[in-house]
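Entry type: protein chain
Record version: 2
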Amino acid sequence: MNEDVYSIWLSSISVSSNIKIKILEEIGSFRSIYYLRKQDYLSFGLTETQAQKFIEAQDKIDKSAEILEYTQQNNIDVINIAQKEYPLSLNHINEPPLVLYGRGNKSSLHELSIAVVGSRKCSEYGFFTAKKFAQELAEMGICVVSGLAMGIDAAAHQGALSVKQRTVAVLGSRIDACYPAENSLLYNQILNQEGYIISEYAPGYQTKLYNFSRRNRIISGLSLGVLVVEAAYKSGALITAHNALIQGKSVFAVPANLGSGYGSGSNELIQQGAKLVQNVQDIIDDFPYYIRIKLKTSLTENLLDEKFSLDKNESLVYDCLSWQTAKSFSELEKVTTLSSDQLNRILVKFEIIGVVSRIPGNRYIKNR
């Protein structure tokens, strides 16, 4: 049997992954952990009960072999914590999953990412806002991470897909079934557009309610920061935000109408210190300098590779700008007849990739 079988076996044991990782670091391989005796497990500081769980699990190795065979037959990736494909950022969270099961393009796991989360029950405004933020983040080259739940999560994934960009979905259920079933079409769209779907739960696993709150540590762990859109007072999105803070990540929140039950949790986050954001630029500005440079370089290279293959509205705005004379936002709005929202979105993109500069007086000048 290979290491994949033993990694699946180890991940199935109901003992803290922090403990299992400590043993793995000492022993050096999953296979070697399997062949330890009870006294060996106790020598790592395990309790009698914990050590007994390892011993009893040794009789179930065949089940792990069956799971691996199933993943191989159904194009499911098995990524363990010792492999280079495992996201480095997850090594730094509490209780890292020993094994991730995935479908799609796993390179998405290593992109600059922002989590966009919120309540399952949301207003039309909340759904629209989450989708809009996700669209604009994706257009900037940022991978959108969410949990494939109904409501805000679905809006986030749809936003990224709507501009032909990849998105990562972190399931709280087993990898081989879409939950909720209503999002089956979205599940397949993510795969068809080179996105990635992951779960720490093996095929055939019996989903438990608390799994959905546990997976939130992975959503925040994969991301540079977490954007909360319309989270209710006891929304699971607040757990994701809390995990982000513990992990040293930024938390952003879109303010909600006062008295709105849909967004009371979002407003509370802002009271507690989350950054209030009104547009994508507010998020970008919070990134460390080296991240902004990396993002700008990536976007500029893409733009140059496409030889300025802009869409109709982007070309219109670009042609209206000048190298010699700065133009105000209101001038551009009048000449292009674009809505302020459309124009702002394009100018933010141009500014990040270095096409234009914004100067005092809300005026813009072309750089090249």
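Comment: Residues 106-284 form a domain with the Rossmann fold fold (CATH 3.40.50.450).
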